[in-house]
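Sanity check record (used in CI):
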Amino acid sequence: MSSNRFLIPLTLSASNSQRTSTSSGSLDLIESSCSRAIPTSLISWTCAVKDHEGLQKDEQKNSDISGVAMGCSDGSIYVFRATPMVQEHVSSNASSPGLQNTLGNLGPFSPTQRSRMAQSTSRSSSPSSVRSSLAPFSVSSRSRIVSGITLEQAEAPKNYVDFEDEPEKLKDMLKGKGPKERTSLSEGVRSPSPSARIVRSPGPTPRTENIAGTGTPPPTSQSVTRAPSPTLSSSPALAMPTPMQSSISLAFHLLPPRLGESHSISCMEVVRDSQALLCLQDTGYLSVFSLRDGSCLSSCRVEDEEPLPPPEGIKAHDMSHHIWSWKRLQVTIYGEKVLVLVCATDPSAISGTPSNIGDHHSEEDASEITRIAIFELKEAAAADVSVSPLLEKLGEWCMDGPVCGPILSDPSLDQGAPGPMMFFHITPARHLVMRQLWLSAPKRLNPSLLESERSNNNSMTSLPLPNPFKALKMRSTERVAVAEDETPQGMIAVGDEVDLGEISFGDREISPIAGIRIVESRAMIWSDSAMILFDLDTKASRMSPLGSAVSITSIKDVRSCSPGSYIVTCRDRAEVYAVRKVDPNNDEVEDHSPGILQYAGLSTLREVPLPNHAISHILPSGCILVVRRDEKARRALEVIDLAELGSSRLSKASPGKLGNEFLWKAKRPSKDNDVFLTALLPLELDAIIAGYSDGFIRRSSLATLAAPPKNAAADLASDVSLNALVTSLFLVRNRRTSSQIIIGGGDDGSIACWDFGSLSLAARWILFTSPLQNVLEMPESCILKGCILCIACDGTIAIIAIDGCQFLYLIPGSIAPLVHVYVDSDNILLVYSHGWARLWDLRSQEFRRSLTWDKAAEIVAQGEGWVEMTMNHVQPSLTVGVTAGTPSQAFSATLLVDLTAMINQIMASVHTPREKQRQTAVTTQYRTVLSGLLTFGLSLDIDRLCEDGLGTQSSGTSAGFMSRDALVSFASSDPRTAWTISPEVSAARALGVIALLRALALFEEFADAANTVTTFYASSLEGLVGSGYRAPSPTYLANAWLNGAGELRASIHLLFDAGIAYLSDEDANRLVETWEQLLPCRQHENDKQSHIAAMALFLCGYLAVAKYSLLSTVTLADISKSIAYYLHDDTSVYRSLAIDLCSKGFTVWQQYVDAMEMLRALFLLATSSRKETISTQNAGLLARAAVLRIASSNSPLFMTTLAFDILHPQNLEHRKSVMQLVAFFIRKQPLVLYPNLPRLVEAVVKSLDPNATSDRDAVLDTATEILGHVVKTFPTVDFHTATQRLAVGTSEGAVIMYDLKTATRLYVLDAHKKRPVAISFSPDGRRLVTVSLEEGVVLVWKVGSSFSSFFNPGAPPRQGHGGSEPFKRLPFNVGDEAKMTTAGTLEYIRFEWPADRSVKLKIRESTLTFST
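Expected output for WD40 repeat-like protein:
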């Protein structure tokens, strides 16, 4: 979750009024996407799955499969799970685990059960109160395309230009001289002639399954998005789900942080007892996902991690200037550690193609090189979250040989402890070699040795290149910094290399080795046309073949499923082999037949044809799981049972006779004429540009896109189809005309320009061989101002002038991905991922030179005018709080809704006058978002209230889940399922619902309904969902609060407090015990400001406020100290948390810390005028609210601190801040000060002591302002300007007279038996009248100066008679007004003086006149 943003993925239906009639509005969007996806990796698991081979598997049946994950070429993953039985709710008090401690939570939390009867028993309850212009330069006619619509295809030059190509060739290409003919496109990529484009159907070309099964599917156009999900109408009662024929169901669609065709899923493994999925992408991104809800637990890029030197004994290789393709993933258990081995190869190195200028490949260099990295997958403990990620790199190095070669065997046990593992790999000479490998303590590499090693290496560096363009830092500078701190060495140690022998396939040596597996002491090694087995004797350091190699065509995978039995999957069949003992006549013999010479060899047991499929996976039970199309062309998961593994006879069978079982089938096949969303450009909630698979774009709104097909309004559509699937949309501005142009890309490599207002097609070219990925506007300082850079996925750049939509020229791409673009006035610098950059002259349109990252960084850092152009993979955030989801077609129908921005807009619209029609249109869009979050079908009454009171209804939108930039979309038609996935998903959805409802409640017409529905979603879900309900995770809410702001925080508190209220005492104690060790006061100084420590304070602090009696005094003291620590730390980003905790639980914390110091800190924050750099809010606002609350609940301590600080301030600044606080209270909460008003006034008066001249001058203005507010606000205080006298009435009936000239108390007038409600000086200052409603009397006092006061200072003036009686006593009777409240007396009682000796007392509407 991004700081200050709360993003919710909202997947739209593909419904549109203009789509083809064959497209079903109820087609499930995820299923449709799955049907069009191209699988690249497949894995399954059971409840008792093992993390690695080599352990005995339990007998497994097909029905035991509890889950399947299918990785795809676009980087996304589809997860299937055993169909859960959603239980009917039996009792309203049913309990269920609310928090489950599984891998990857934001921090530790314990399982909880919500108990409505949870009550504290050990202690009393908490004492706190809890609640452009033409083209910028001329270009030749060869490089210009006529503006306007054209059907002619623009030929692109060869996109991949090697650095060895002569600069002259590049110049000619840029000038339009004879570009090379484009090679024929691979199967599935459309390249029709112009005439063919005119007559063909608008739908995409149908795709075929990857029947080759090589693991790398045939190149096709990009995968496509999903169709709309079915909606569930409300019903009086929830019926149980109808049993399906499928034994598993599609649970969710998972998108890792990086997506696109270049980020395809290479390999996956299930870890942590089937609780987590480890996936490796081709670009080296290694991620861990929860199989419970798809949340991303950890993600890193192997090449971006801190580079480590190779283990001692392994030759250092130059890892730079390679384009690594990560292909293999292996998980191994080492004691209690989970080790992850990942391997990569450089395809350009295999082919011998130089990747940059200056590369000199010797014969040895031409061999395949493999990069290896080993990670440790850690447990998700709190300490790990705070100090390190779940994936920690332990070592990395490079070795010559195929990428399939490296493999780790299980460690042996040495006296109960794990011994060294065996690391095997295959050399370029086809020898299997072995090394011992073990974990060692991390070492530090001596800087001098490091420099010596570098100087001895002829290459630039032996370590991977870090990114030198972060903050324009040169890589050399980075290395110096690393060397100064000593470079850390890895934790992997290896032994000497042992050659086990040569791998020979006989007469089939021409085939490259494709794979190796080692199970126990046997190695299976195969190419694409042969397989051979070896017995390994690691002690004797040798291996012996089990017979000769077996010839098998089109091998895809080999696995051992039982001792001595092996399954080989091929493109169109599966074969079962077993190890058999034979005599010289090749007849099978018993293992121990005496006197007979025996040989070991492989014998074929069974051959089973496989159906046409996209990908297959061998199950531990000996069955084969395939992804294919059924007889109705629906995508399906099928298990093919290879029966009779133990048979000694060769047999063949058809799949239909083997008891095959379909685990899952899509509801309907994907059709070529289906029209679906493929790209989104959100501008406003009511202005979204949508691209479709039929090549049209349409302007729509969020409400229209979300509406069911029959209710969807007609959209403005473009006039001409692209005859290609629209893959991306961008908006650019013509600076000369201020008009806007929509730039879009097609899956055929086309670029199109549309007028924003009319959506008319202005120009179109086919320039690329891959889809458009990015559009960048050139800065004003550049010669190409008014132009845009259109960047394809392969890095090819087309330069187009916006004004007139004129194509200028192409800049070819590289074999490596483009990662950075820098421009100055005349040049463009293109930086690629393999460590090289290219410099192009924009004025002459010539290629200048190729240079390394070091030199490129120096040019940018030392030159003037260089501007980096940001390459966004996701559209930037908009003010409407909506962004396009991802560049992947699979999620092109997904919007990321920034809930924080949306709530702020709702609140602003409430207070901003606008036309009723406009306001209704805006609220309609907001309610559309809410409709996607609400789960209709749980309660008929709530459904009706939502429809009638809020104007929401069940729609085709569905809310997903986002964590660490990974998106998940769930597939379920049961409304209860949304609340049974995980506590985190429940928390995110409930928070979205409640936050939007609270914002809509600001509109009067929605207030009542919004409040009722808020209560329902905060506290009533468990009773309707049943025992599978997962209560919102407190940990998730704590993290959201720390990253949130404003109204979102209020909604989090509402949801958090509701959850804590139902938390049982046992679970509350468990939660505190888990987190109290992480409180800030218990951490080292460097960790006190960590995010995890702040989360601990949030959880323990607010739970202590609600359940004070359950916590020990030690825990309460630590919580109080942690609050004080954050409160007094001016640099803390978590000060807002401390302030809020002070506000809600001050009466608890005051028992364990200096309460006055805590109040003083709040005083300073409440009156500070400087901007605070806290996480989300200004501390002054929070502190003022906290002080108001504390003053109301603990007035004595508050007033004591206030008065003391006025009289005895730490400094003048402190005194001024306190007085500003008093003025604030007088204006906002006068009743808080009323009981202690005399003490406050006396403190203010004494601050004006003339003996402290400097102090008086500093506070004079503030004190005078305060006294003015006091006299104006409180009737019991009056001031006479001429005499500088101040009279203050007390609650005991006395009146105190002060002289402000001397800042002294003169005397006290005491005659009322009840509190006076008003006092007033006469105009001449010689009379003072006081009134008490409870007594029903007005007293008149003489207060003028007299001759006797000179002889008796401090005594009250004589009243004309003996004693202390007033000059006059005037009784009256006003009936029930005598019982007027204090608030009433402040508002309705006033004295008015028509003359010096006549006064009028006004009590509400009544007026009493007295003579004084």
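The mean pLDDT is 77. If this sentence no longer matches the regenerated tokens, the check is flagged for review.
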